[in-house]
Amino acid sequence: MKAFIRVMKALSDPNRVKIMKMLEAKELCVCEITAILGLAQSTVSKHLKILEDADLVFSSREGAWMNYNLTENFENQYAEVLQNHLKDWLGTDPRIQDVLAQVKRVDRLRVCAA
After folding, report:
1. What pLDDT does 77 receive?
2. Sign of torsion, CA 4 5 6 11?
3. Which is more confidently placed, 6 or 26?
4. CATH code assigned to 2-111
């Protein structure tokens, strides 16, 4: 039950759901996510930590960038359900459509240079 609660809590915040949908589209670094959501870097990092703790995303370092991706092999059955249905959820929600449009245009060399 703990794994289920951890996944459900991780997905109980609209910004974390947006991050999941963004990472479904492509790998992003913290500054790209920050630029798209318009949140403080520390807030985005906290959201990413919660998603990591739920085994929904993982990070990897590339030079100065900390990149995030969806976890490919979810470790629990609840996350597996999410993985199988994430693409189908919220596709018509205007907030999700907005962040996905921004994901296509975000340029880490521009947003991370600031």
Report:
1. 55
2. positive
3. 26
4. 1.10.10.10
